[in-house]
Design goal:
about 375 residues; four-stranded mixed β-sheet; about 5% strand; globular
């Protein structure tokens, strides 16, 4: 009974908070996903099943809608929320928590949803804090993002949705940030948001049309694009959040530094696969799938390694002038690697020909 009244109280707090907000374009931050999450959690806590309409309200909020369109299934959220919040699922919950314990922090989804269950009061307080400080957070975040972008016209309103899904964020449209993750970041939130805004702005100036990519090239282009996108955006936040001893993600520093150190190994693997790839649809698709499956941490450490070399040799302008062109990123890395033989892997002429042909194919350059 106590839990029931707790969730009813939280729903009332969130409802009153929501009613006081301005329109989305003026409020800057969207919390509708959190509101629906709390409502669903309260129903599950009573051992009841939310209706299809109630689940649909959750998945129709901007943050959860883009997550389920781009990355997660709706069933993923249904299963995890049921497991964590329904009393009858306690045994399954304990087994899932044990199974997850050795996974990277951003992949411990069951642990994350359980943490949300235990920290509902903090979540509501964080919403109020974020609402109050939204203008200054967005101002700093924009500056961080634009620092690694060319001169460009950017719209005044950037959609940002706070949800609960993982200790992570996404540079989709809208930009998605986990609210518990934002609590852990504390004053460093603008750096993480700046990273995600960089993705958002970069997507507005891509050198190619994502909708025009042929099926056989989608994985290969995804790998090239991720390496550039994350490598440049990581210049905004990784040194402060991860490698700085005071950073909120410093516990991950040893793993991160080792992955960056091992980046040349993947570049050699990438070179071999591209150089040996036959120019058939089947081979392009197969090679792209292989590369995607083996790409460490969605390209972050590989791109960071390459971007650092370009930055040191050619300066920030070399990173920002063609920030929407992943093919140009590899071309500039190749120039730096050739200038310092032995210090970094140099791509073969066959691999660079594949990249050049893709650039011409999808950008006309």
């Amino acid at each position: 009974m106590r839990q029931r009244f707790r969730y009813l109280f939280l729903i009332c707090v969130v409802f009153n908070f929501s009613c006081q907000e301005e329109k989305a374009a003026e409020a800057l931050f969207d919390f509708s996903g959190i509101e629906q999450f709390i409502e669903i959690a309260g129903i599950l806590e009573q051992g009841q099943e939310p209706s299809d309409i109630q689940w649909q309200k959750l998945f129709s909020t901007p943050g959860y809608q883009v997550l389920t369109e781009r990355e997660f299934s709706r069933e993923f959220f249904r299963e995890h929320l049921r497991m964590v919040f329904m009393p009858a699922e306690r045994e399954a919950l304990e087994l899932a928590l044990e199974k997850e314990k050795d996974l990277p922090f951003h992949r411990r989804h069951v642990h994350h949803f359980k943490s949300a269950k235990n920290r509902m009061d903090e979540i509501v307080l964080q919403m109020e804090q974020l609402k109050e400080h939204a203008p200054e957070i967005m101002e700093v975040s924009r500056k961080e993002a634009l620092n690694y972008l060319p001169q460009m016209e950017e719209n005044g309103f950037v959609p940002v949705s706070f949800v609960i899904f993982s200790n992570d964020a996404r540079g989709y449209t809208p930009v998605v940030i986990d609210i518990l993750f934002s609590i852990e970041l504390d004053d460093n939130l603008p750096l993480l948001l700046g990273h995600e805004l960089h993705h958002y702005f970069r997507n507005q100036i891509l050198a190619y049309d994502p909708d025009a990519i042929l099926a056989e090239d989608k994985y290969l282009l995804w790998v090239l694009d991720q390496i550039q996108a994350e490598g440049i955006a990581d210049q905004i936040d990784k040194r402060k959040l991860v490698t700085d001893v005071e950073g909120p993600l410093h516990f991950f520093a040893n793993q991160w530094e080792q992955m960056v150190k091992n980046a040349p190994e993947f570049l050699v693997f990438l070179d071999e696969k591209l150089d040996q790839m036959q120019d058939t649809a089947e081979q392009r698709l197969f090679t792209g799938q292989q590369l995607r499956e083996n790409l460490p941490m969605s390209g972050h450490p590989i791109g960071f390694y390459m971007a650092n070399l370009i930055l040191e040799e050619k300066g920030k302008g070399a990173l920002t002038e063609e920030v929407g062109n992943p093919f140009a990123f590899f071309r500039k890395y190749q120039q730096v690697a050739k200038a310092h033989p032995g210090d970094a892997p140099v791509f073969s002429s066959g691999a660079m020909r594949v990249i050049s042909d893709m650039e011409e194919k999808y950008t006309g350059q």
